[in-house]
Every structure is written in C-alpha cells, then in structure tokens.
Specification:
By secondary structure, the protein is of the alpha+beta class. The protein folds into two domains: 240 residues, Rossmann fold, CATH 3.40.50.300; 120 residues, Beta Barrel (OB fold (Dihydrolipoamide Acetyltransferase, E2P)), CATH 2.40.50.140. It contains nine helices and 21 strands. Strand 1 and strand 2 form a beta hairpin. It is elongated, with a radius of gyration of 25 Å. It starts with 15 loop residues before the first strand and ends in an 8-residue tail after the last strand.
C-alpha cells in the first residue's frame, strides 16, 4: 500500500523513471509534437515550459495516456506504456481545474481513488489523514469543496494524487487559477513537498518563474520542438538560442543587433543607439565562434542584471554613459530603458538609484556575462 514516503534505501538510486523517445503527435495534418526526446531520473522535478500552444500540455497528455501518440515510445519505470490505458501506467495527475466531487467531503475526495481500488476503510483512513497533514488541510477533512478557497481546493486535488503513491506525478498548470500571492505560497509548498517525498514529478507551466524556482530539470518547448533541456542555471546562463534567451528570465535577456571587428583575439563591439552616439564595448575573451567570424553582424545578449549601476570595482565591467529613455521604480530594483541595438534594452539598477527619465548615467556592462547569437539561425555562438 502507499507509504507517502520514499524508502531510505531508494534515495540514492538514480534510474530513469520516464523515457520518451522519438515522440510525434499529429492532429489531422497538423504536427503538434515533433520528435520529442525526454528523460526523467527517479526523484527529479522536471518542468515543461513554453508559450501557449507550444505542445507542452499535449506532451503531458501523451505521457498520461489521455492522448494517443502518432509514433514514438513512452516508458515509465522501464516498462513500455505507449499503448496502455492511463489506469495501467501507475501515474497520478493534478489538473488546473481541481476536478473535485462537489457532493463529497475533503476526506472522501482524497480517498476516492483508494476506494475505487477497494482499499479497506481501515487502511484508507490513515493514508488520507497523512496526506492531509502533509498538505496542512487536516482541519478541513469534513468540509465540502464549495466551502473551500481556491488554494485549499488545489491542496485537496494534490492530496488525492499523493495517496496513490504512483511512480510518476503529472501536474498540468495547477496554479494557473490562483491569485499571484497564493501562487507563490503554493509554489513553495509544492517544492517543500517534493523534497520531503522525493517524488518524481513532471510539471507543465507557461510561467518561466515557476519553472526556474521549482525544477531540478527544465525542458523548454516552442512549436512542438524541444529547444533546450538542462538545469535552471544552465538554461538561464547558457541559452542555446535566441528563443530560450528571450523566453527565460523576467525581464528577459536583452538581444541587441551589433557589429564586431576582431583584432588580436579581442572583439570590438559596436551597438547603435537612438538619439545617441554608438556604444562601443571591448570583449577581451570572446567565444572561439565569435573569433572565427572576424567581422560582421551578430546579436549580442546580456541580462538586465548585467547592465547595472554597480560601483564596485570589477575588471570585467565596462562603464558606459547612457541616456535613460524610461525609468521604472520597482521597490528593491529600478528598471531603466535604454534604446539601443534596435530594441528597448532594460538595465536593472539598485532600488535607491537616483536616476530620472531623460538623464544620462553610467551603466556597467559585465563583459563576462555576454552571450552571442547568429542573427540568421538564432543559435548561440
């Protein structure tokens, strides 16, 4: 029966709990998933992230068995489940819509799956109580969904999945219906729960902040294609293309048109600025792919926090006088918009920065944090 706790002797074992190989899915003539390959190690928290319509929910539905695949193989726990019904896959799902039975109490909703499997009440009750305690809803067991808040209903839906103790948990945008403050609270609870249980989780979201904070591994998707797979740090610091660079991060990476001239392995970068002289930077240690280009145009990427008003001495930082087009105070940070490189680039300044719209100020560009992209292919150089 379910234990709601990973045995100690399993915590150090690393095995593939999920393998997706060469997965394609068509609806008529429209191909929505294109050669998807995804792995999940036992105990990992994998987040599928991307804009609406990118195929992430369809992929989750295929893994769950709710949507039939066109081709490819899905394995869970080493078993080929590609053609199996959802009930045969040893999974549990948490949906965006909660999907609770309004005529049942919280306890009955949590224990419904166990009841269907004919688990005796004497065994079912302690499992329900333990799941409720983990989710901090033990005082709500006698209530019905109509008397619960949105966050409480989502906890009940999670509890119903937890008592199953499946091989794999699937979350389909579970926090989308909650207000901003409650989403942050529930995000913390989900992460804490994952750490306590060591559960294997696949989580779908369009919110890249959720992806960065929850995941041990992220899969970024666009137009039915996996763009990049990696840890949150890898995805954030080394995006493989301009789409990932622009999608991950809030505010996203500044992607500016630039010209380079390479002399003695040093890249001299020129960025045009609106109503201002061109900005000129020097990168003493550019990537070899940039050196190979010698001269020409490319797209320069730099995150807002690497364009700042920091006065700390740093040999990697180039201080450049910039005209601030817009200033946006945001509490702990102040965001400044600078028109250059064909975009409205955003610099992240200190919250107490004494800057004003239309003024000039020194902006420090951290040259060790630059990314370079091919303007034709969009790929990282």
């Amino acid at each position: 029966m379910p234990s709601l706790q990973k045995p100690d002797n399993e915590t150090s074992i690393s095995s593939k709990i999920l393998e997706v190989r060469g997965l394609h899915k068509k609806f008529g003539e429209v191909e929505v998933l294109k050669n998807i390959n995804v792995d999940l190690d036992d105990g990992d928290f994998l987040v599928l992230v991307g804009p609406s319509g990118c195929g992430k929910s369809t992929l989750l539905s295929c893994i769950a068995g709710l949507t039939e695949t066109t081709s490819g193989v899905i394995s869970i726990g080493g078993d080929d489940v590609t053609t199996l019904d959802p009930a045969q896959r040893d999974i549990a799902m948490v949906f965006q819509s909660y999907a609770l039975f309004p005529n049942m109490t919280v306890a009955e909703n949590i224990g419904f799956g166990l009841e269907v499997r004919r688990v005796p009440l004497v065994e079912r009750k302690p499992l329900v109580e333990k799941a409720a305690a983990l989710l901090k809803i033990e005082d709500l067991l006698d209530r019905k969904p109509a008397h619960l808040s949105g966050g409480q209903r989502q906890r009940v839906a999670m509890g119903r999945a937890l008592v199953r103790d499946p091989k794999l948990f699937l979350f389909d945008e579970p926090l989308s219906n909650l207000d901003a403050k409650l989403r942050v609270t529930m995000r913390t609870e989900i992460k804490r729960l994952h750490k306590r249980l060591g559960a294997s989780i696949i989580y779908v979201t369009h919110d890249q902040i959720e992806a960065m904070t929850l995941a041990t591994k992220i899969v970024v998707m666009e137009d039915g294609v996996v763009q990049q797979t990696g840890t949150p740090r890898e995805i954030y610091n080394n995006p493989v293309n301009m789409f990932v660079a622009g999608f991950m991060g809030a505010p996203s990476m500044n992607l500016m048109q630039a010209d380079i001239v390479v002399k003695n392995d040093v890249a001299h970068i020129t960025i045009e600025r609106e109503n201002d002289q061109p900005l000129v930077l020097q990168d003493d240690a550019p990537p070899s792919a940039v050196l190979d280009r010698q001269n020409g145009s490319l797209v320069l990427g730099i995150r807002p926090e690497s364009m700042t008003d920091s006065t700390a001495p740093d040999k990697q930082v180039r201080i450049v006088d910039c005209l601030l087009d817009v200033v946006e105070p945001a509490g702990s940070d102040t965001y400044a918009v600078i028109k250059m490189g064909g975009i409205e680039a955003i610099a992240r300044l200190h919250g107490e920065a004494s800057v004003k719209q239309g003024e000039r100020t020194g902006i420090g560009f951290n040259m060790s944090r630059l990314s370079y992209f091919d303007p034709d292919t969009g790929l990282r150089l």
